[in-house]
Design brief:
414 residues, Alpha/beta knot, six-stranded parallel β-sheet, 14 helices, 8 strands, extended, coiled coil, mitochondrion, tRNA (adenine(9)-N1)-methyltransferase activity
């Protein structure tokens, strides 16, 4: 038994242990070597039994597991050495004046090492360098904008402190209380106006932020009107992008808004026969404003103009749809017939108060139409001719230049 243990001890020392020493893993390999050398019969407090046999299978398992650990540590050391070499290469290129980013992560280093050629590595580092420059430039612009805003706020606060007096403060508080009282009355007696908040997945974070900004403007316009709507936010989920953007704008005042917020669908809150979904894609044109109906506006700002999204939502729920009579009252010029949410709020409030489409459609941006249909024929022709002249001015100038060039060539030939 002792001779067998001595034989295995010499085998381990002669084979695996020098390998570990050569690769710098003596510390990691020492426990393995110790487990291979020691035998149960050599421990203290145990008596040597000559009849015991060596379990060679157990020794093989121990040897194999130890070699696997050695291979894993070798691969880890190789990976660390390659990363260090790649980082040194990047540092050398930076000192040489090439376009190299100042900070580079391990994932970017791994991607850099996977590049097949030197030119591709240079292009990848240049891409990271430009990306870093863009981020720094954006951060600088944001800092400058923040500083300018703080300066203007300080100047405004100073001027307000000089100009403000007790009468102005009392007047502002009185007006604010009046607006809040009207909004509170609208929650009991006002006509409901629903904002459909189920389009979060159809927009990017930037579009969601723009949508919330327009809804904030709409709420402020509604609160200041003589007969405000009772605003409902339906399909509104807690901790959604809408919710986070609203908290950014309102902060502590979010819980004090005089509106109704619910996660239920509007079909579960109001009867279907009274609901009209306002969408620019609807084939049915709205003729008059009905005070008994409940109008729904899709809370969506779509820069790519995906047509039919809100119309499909209304058809799926079996709701009546309508669009504003823009072509009936306006000579539409360019652009889609989609309006912002605050423009829709202004139009609906004006229709509710006056019922005059001409007065309500004055909130449509002037760049989208050239006039109302009811104007005289002479004025319409004049405005249309002016539009055509502006559109064809560039083309006419190109034609004149070409004619002058050809005419000069003919004169030289003669």
């Amino acid at each position: 038994m002792q001779s067998a243990n001595m034989l295995l001890k010499n085998f381990v020392r002669c084979s695996a242990f020098p390998f570990a020493v050569q690769h710098g893993m003596k510390k990691d390999f020492f426990p393995l070597c110790r487990t291979l050398i020691l035998s149960p019969c050599l421990k203290e407090g145990t008596s040597h039994n000559p009849s015991e046999k060596l379990d060679l299978d157990e020794w093989k398992k121990v040897m194999k597991s130890g070699l696997q650990e050695v291979n894993e540590t070798v691969s880890e050391h190789k990976e660390l050495s390659t990363l260090a070499a790649a980082r040194e290469t990047v540092q050398m290129w930076r000192l040489a004046g090439r376009s190299v980013p100042e900070n580079i992560s391990e994932e970017q280093l791994k991607t850099f090492m996977e590049c097949p050629s030197k030119s591709s590595k240079k292009k990848y580092l240049k891409y990271l360098h430009l990306k870093e420059l863009y981020k720094k430039n954006d951060k600088r612009k944001m800092d400058e904008k923040r500083e300018r805003r703080l300066e203007t706020q300080e100047k405004a606060s100073k001027t307000d402190e000089i100009k403000r007096n007790s009468f102005a403060c009392l007047w502002a508080n009185a007006i604010d209380k009046t607006h809040n009282w009207r909004a509170a009355q609208s929650m009991v007696f006002g006509q409901p106006l629903v904002f459909d908040m189920s389009f979060e997945n159809d927009m990017s974070p930037r579009e969601v932020a723009n949508t919330v900004r327009q809804i904030v403007l709409s709420e402020g316009c509604n609160r200041k009107s003589v007969d405000p709507f009772h605003i409902h936010f339906c399909n509104f989920k807690d901790n959604s992008q809408y919710h986070r953007e609203f908290i950014k704008h309102y902060r502590e005042a979010w819980d004090k808004l005089l509106i109704t917020v619910t996660d239920q669908c509007y079909t579960n809150v109001f009867p279907k026969d009274k609901i009209i979904y306002l969408t620019a894609d609807s084939p049915k044109v709205m003729k008059t404003f009905d005070h008994d109906k409940i109008y729904i506006i899709g809370s969506m700002v779509d820069r790519s103009i995906k047509t039919g999204v809100s119309l499909a939502q209304a058809k799926r729920l079996g709701l009546e749809t309508a669009s504003l009579p823009l072509e009936k009252y306006l000579l539409w010029n360019v652009g889609a017939k989609n309006l912002t949410l605050d423009q829709m709020m202004h139009i609906l409030l004006t229709l509710k108060d006056t019922g005059d489409w001409r007065k309500a459609l004055e909130f449509v941006p002037k760049r989208k139409y050239c006039g109302f249909v009811g104007r005289s024929v002479y004025e319409l022709k004049k405005s249309l001719n002016l539009m055509n002249t502006l559109k064809l001015a560039k083309r006419q100038e190109e034609v004149r230049k070409q004619f002058a060039k050809n005419y000069s060539k003919k004169l030289t030939q003669k």
